[in-house]
Amino acid sequence: QVQLVESGGGLVQAGASLRLSCAASGRAFNAYTMGWFRQAPRKEREFVAYIGRGGETYYTDSVKGRFTISRDNAKNTVYLQMNSLRPDDTAIYYCAAALLASANSESYADWGQGTQVTVSS
Questions:
Q1: Which of 8, 21, 39, 55 has the smallest C-beta neighbourhood within 10 Å, fewest atoms?
Q2: Are 18 and 10 in contact (CB under 8 A)?
């Protein structure tokens, strides 16, 4: 089990950038695939990106070219750099940990509490 705490959310204008961080504690961080998900008001939670144990990455189509996921195993931290933000990126962003590389939220057993990102037009 791993405990996750997100930070870095906020209110920005369209076109701006934000970097989300997710600090992990508990069992070996580098053993996990780390994912970012988001949930907008009145919508289901959706996959954003993941980074595997070996550093491989995968993104949902709507964020490709704008968002970058990375990890620093020495700091037990995963990041989501978000550029060219749009109003439809507004959501609560969650990081999560899984033992397998997957875009399916059901593969992730451990979740953070979420951080709000609001993008104004």
A1: 55
A2: yes
Q: What is the DSSP letter of 115?
A: E
Mean pLDDT of the chain: 97
87 phi, psi to nearest 5 deg: -55, -30
Please report, for residues 3, 32, 58, 101, 118, the alpha-carbon distance to residue 89 in angstroms, rounded to integers and kept in the order given. Answer: 25, 26, 18, 23, 7
**CB atoms near residue 67 (< 10 Å):** 22
CA distances from 10 to 39, 76, 84 (A): 15, 22, 15
Quick one: pLDDT band at residue 83, thresholds 50, 70, 90? very high
C-alpha 115/C-alpha 33 separation (Å) is 20
